[in-house]
Amino acid sequence: MNKITRRQALGTTAGALTVLGLAGATARAAATDSRAAATPAGTVDEVYKGRRIQITPGQGGHHGGHHSPGMPTVRIDGRELHVMRNADGTWISVVNHYETYPDPTSLARAAVRELQGAVLAPFAPMGGTA
Length: 130
Prior knowledge:
Blueprint: H1 6-38, E1 44-48, E2 51-56, E3 73-76, E4 79-81, E5 83-85, E6 91-93, H2 104-115
């Protein structure tokens, strides 16, 4: 009767573990892809320092037209944070008007830090109401 050697046993075990690892990685990738498909690209919904930040991609002008078409809507605890994009691609807000950020998420987090727990006041554009 043939006996299996230690080297053969280790090789078989390593091969089985490799297959299991690949199957697990594939399952994780599929789960990640299905979650990403359920959330529109560019959407953020997170809690940062106890405050809820929600960012949705821009669809066009809204809120009485004081948003430019394509601008994202950024909310902190459900209140809209007015954001603007600079010509160089950086972002500013009414809370951090003189400091630029690379993306709306970084901008929203900086606004949360700057607010220090205060409630975000409604933004009323010149000549309009909130």
